[in-house]
Amino acid sequence: MPVRPVSVGERIKRREDPRLIRGLASYTDDLKLHGGLHAAFVRSDYAAGKIDKIDTSRALARKGVVAVYTFDDLRGKVGRTPCVARPEPGRDAEHPLLADGFVRWVGQPIAVVIAEDRYVARDGALDVSVDISPLPAVVDLRRALEPSAPRVYADHKDNIALHIPRSNNPEVEKLFAEADGIVKLEIINQRVAPVSMEGRAVLASWDEGPQKLTLWTSTQVPHLVKQSVAQCLGLSEIRIRVIAPEVGGGCGAKIPVYAEECLLPWISKELRRPVKWSETRTENLMGTTHGRGHLHEIEGAYKKDGTLLALRGRVISDCGAYPSFFGASIATFTPLMMPGCYRVKAVDVEVVVVYTNTMATDAYRGAGRPEAAYTVERVLDEVAVATGLDAVEVRRRNFIPKSAFPFTTATGAIYDSGDYEASLAKALERFDYPAARAKQAKARAEGKLVGIGVATFTEICGLGPSTGASPIQRTGSWESGMVRVEPTGNVVITTGASPHGQGQETAFAQMAADAFGIDVNDVEVMHGDTDVVTHGVGTFGSRGLVVGGTAVHMALQKVTAKASRIAAHLLDAKPDQVTFDGESFRVAGSERKMTFRQVAEAAHLWNVPIPGEEPGLEAVARFEPTGTTFPFGAHFCEVEIDPDTGEVALTRYLAVDDAGKIVNPLLADGQRLGGIIQGLGQAMCEEVVYDESGQLLTATLMDYAMPKAHMFPRIELDSTCTPTHLNPLGAKGIGELGTIGSTPCIVSAVLDALRPRGVKSIDMPLKAERVWRALAEAKR
Amino acid sequence: MKISLNVNGKPQERDVEPRTLLVHFLREQLGLTGTHIGCETTICGACTVHLDGRAVKSCTLFAVQVDGRNVTTVEGLAADADHLHPVQTGFWEEHGLQCGYCTPGMIMTTSALLAENPNPSETEIRHAIEGNICRCTGYQQIVNAVQHAAKLGGKGAR
User: Fold this and answer.
1) Do residues A275 and A118 touch, judged by C-beta distance below 8 A?
2) Is B127 helix (H, G, I), strand (E, B) or coil?
3) Does residue A38 contact residue A276 with C-beta atoms inside 8 Å?
4) Chain-wide mean pLDDT for chain A?
5) Which of A48, A303, B14, B77 could be a cystine partner for A137, CB 3.0 to 4.6 Å?
């Protein structure tokens, strides 16, 4: 008999929100320490050059400037910018915390000015004069691969950071020979900027007494920051406390541990005063990692019946000027996920990660998988055009059937579970696809450019096991969770995940509330403080709930088991006679019972010792995933294009997603809606633009186009539920799903609208000008 | 320069450099860190406050420009946790925020909207928040939040 309603599965409003909606939350820049100093960086105006001279004298003479540092001050005292996915020797590149003689991208830090006041620090940065002899820069990916191209690193033999050659799989060539046709595409997945609304911010405070550094930083991975900074500065990690306070978004760009995060602690230790730095939006756009930046040359072999037999080609990925934290490994996920949700028999794709004189790239919501999904969806649309089949029918004919799971793809990914037919069927019904096509035909007859887009997709979430991470990546794939029960029965949870908007303070509290029969508000979820939280990994790759939540679940189970043994002893019963009914531990076949809170008190009073047990009630668990989950979905949309201006109006968008079991549908909807718009942002307007000389042209939000509210209709959501067997929650991960589905979906619709006018291909972003030009060129 | 103004109903007299931006004045001199800085170019709206009841972006106003005027920040909307402004309630109920960084600006913009137009259409709401960027929510739950607030009689105490 269930005593109280369960909260898992309910739309429970967030416990994070009261502080946020009243402006009472503390982000890094909100923190103020006594005697605190401010840092401002002098950054390179050139994409490539040799530093001839740095003159800091005027800055040092300015009232309020405390110190100025250049690489000469750091030489031999600190390590290089942290990286856990290092290219091989000869292709790897040292990236110093401040430029060491050469600059390699616009925005690279050259010097840092420390002052009593934020404004004075910036004045001081303007006082520093840097003489640079410009060198030829390389920005274009194909150009960077030419033997005559300027090299980003003069001592390297070429600009390649990582190369995974084609396997020359004979099966692929055989399938191409058997094919009825081949579609050939060149696809640009443009470079975008993550643009978390809070930029990066760092506050470092070295405490000389206890010899301890406290580092507040806006990060997704406080534990990895601790390890990385320790290594870079040659400090023991037990002398470092990293705190991720309120973090205003990350989108992947706050996974890397940056030069600034290493430099400020070193300066604080030198000056024995706290030092703070908050990046400007321009610094954010030029000096925080970018995402995507892929060029795909891809061929798909197909049969007349629409079957996609095989894929072959090349993925060229822009590394930027140095290997960022995970940066060089991101593109390795692209070929892995190239089969999407289809029974492609063989895939042979080369990966080339290329240095250019631009900001480094790294994870961005999806990280290597959206690039794969976008490409395979474009291929399927072309197969539909070539065979004259409907785009939906082509997808359906290639689906991995429900009965085939767990399914090993042609690229070796093991898909845990899936029912692609079910999500597609639901989407077709909700969208009323036949009616939408009929409406489109009518609109076309009236001369309107109306298109319908479809994307069916899967992705890889909550990566694991640790042994199976990308070949060059050096981090574990597990996560930690700790549950501590207070004598009252109130509960503290700590998680190694580091939520920054995902809502796990609520989701994990729901899990504890259900486990112990207590109120959600009697659970405190703590994260983002390495002195408080058991060692952990962090939040990225849609792992917060799937991996972090499972660790919490395991710790809850351990506590429940111990509480059950304590209750059994106190109730004079055998442990196997005691069950927990959601509120009380009961002895089978009797009226004897104890509430969870009574057990918690007894565990701490210990006036009745329990044989074989230690006092107290707490547990730590770590979840190491045995495999990776693959959520999926089917998205449909409708666009209308103004033929005179090329402006794309999104008139309808429907997403049917399957992320397995959902802990809090309100939070899940939020992740999906946000993800969809982020993916549409890339498709419709976002683009980082460098000119040929490597100058950044999109260095403010006046130039970098972000998606805004008026651009979108109300997104319709529906879902199916196919749980995973890989974790006890049955959850598959949801953070990146929307982003992965929405980008190909709208491009599919726009091309569907434009094809009758002779447009065969178009690249993102689908800005009015680009669409107008495509129409104009097709007319000619 | 000396300036005197009302912030969240309290008179303040301060000495500021002429170049001090209003947002830095609020955050660093008055400790009102609920007003955030997102772009420094009047695009993102994270720094939105009310100036004599109208929503303005405090990252491109000098503190000296608001001498003698009334400024309300997000901290001034609700007296305490039990007396939230309807827009704050709306954001909480409808999951109108994730990371929370754009939220104070969104709340200030939409509370000013509801003060002028107590029952806006979805299009009007989306138009009103064009100058506020949110990277997390995709805006839909923000629209829901404003509609929720409108149903509560969105003007609130202030």
Assistant:
1) no
2) helix
3) yes
4) 96
5) A48
Nearest to B41 among A25, A118, A701 (CB): A701
At A469 the pLDDT is: 62
Judge: A670–B73 Cβ closer than 8 Å, yes or no: no
**3-state SS assignment for residue A131:** strand
DSSP 3-state assignment of A383? helix
Q: Please answer yes or no on whether B36 and A27 come within 8 Å at the CB atom.
A: yes
Q: What is residue A1's predicted lDDT score, i.e. its pLDDT?
A: 41
In 3D space, the residue among B104, B95, B107 whose CA is nearest the CA of residue B137 turns out to be B95
Helix axes A420-431, A433-445, angle to 10 degrees: 50
pLDDT grade for A467, boundaries at 50, 70 and 90:
confident
Q: Search chain B and give the residue with CA nearest A505.
A: B98
- Chain A positions touching B57 (Cβ under 8 A) are none
Q: Which of A113, A88, A104, A93 is nearest to A164 (CA)?
A: A88
Helix axes A369-387, A391-398, angle to 10 degrees: 120
A37 half-sphere exposure, CB direction, 13 A CA radius: 26
**Can you tell me whether residue B109 is helix, strand or coil?**
helix
Among candidates A319, A349, A353, A354, which has minimal Cα distance to A337? A349
ipTM summary value: 0.97
Rounded Cα gap, residues B156 and B149, in angstroms: 9
What are A745-771's pLDDT values in tens digits? 999 999 999 999 999 999 999 999 999
What is the separation, in whole angstroms, between the first and last Cα of chain B?
30
Decide: residue A21, CB within 10 A, 0-12 exposed, 13-18 middle, 19+ buried.
buried
Number of H helices, E strands in chain A: 20, 28
- For range B45-68, the mean pLDDT: 97
Give the mean model confidence (pLDDT) for residues A572-584. Answer: 93
Residue B153 has what pLDDT? 86
Torsions phi, psi of A131, nearest 5? -95, 120
pLDDT score recorded for residue B157: 46
Residue B100 to residue A248, Cβ atoms within 8 A: yes
Residues in chain A with CB shorter than 8 Å from the CB of B36 are 27, 197-198, 248
CB < 8 Å to B97, chain A? 17, 20-21, 501
Size of interface A-B (CB pairs under 8 A): 178
Task: Write the pLDDT tens digit of every residue in A639-692.
Answer: 999 999 999 999 999 999 999 999 999 999 999 999 999 999 999 999 999 999
pLDDT digits (tens, 9 = 90+) for A29-74: 999 999 999 999 999 999 999 999 999 999 999 999 999 999 999 9
- In 3D space, the residue among B25, B12, B35, B40 whose CA is nearest the CA of residue A24 turns out to be B35
Question: Which candidate from A21, A666, A676 shows the least CB-CB separation from B88?
Answer: A21
Count CB neighbours of A102 within 10 A.
Answer: 17
Residues 212-271 on A with a CB inside 8 Å of B are 246-249, 251
The percentage of residues in chain B with a pLDDT greater than 70, rounded to a whole number, is 97
Cα B103 to Cα B96: distance, rounded to the nearest angstrom? 8
Q: How far apart are CA A505 and CA A17, in angstroms?
A: 10
Select from A17, A27, A195 the Cβ nearest to the Cβ of B97: A17
Contact yes or no for A674 and B91 at CB 8 A: no
A44 and A132 Cβ atoms separated by less than 8 Å:
yes
* Dihedral over Cα of B50, B52, B56, B60: its sign: negative
| Smallest Cα distance from A227 to chain B, Å | 25
Can you list the alpha helix ranges (DSSP code H) found in A571-607?
596-605
**Helix, strand, coil % over all residues of chain B, rounded to 5:** 35, 15, 45
Q: Is A500's Cβ below 8 Å from some Cβ in B?
A: yes
Are B136 and A26 inside 8 Å of each other by CB?
no
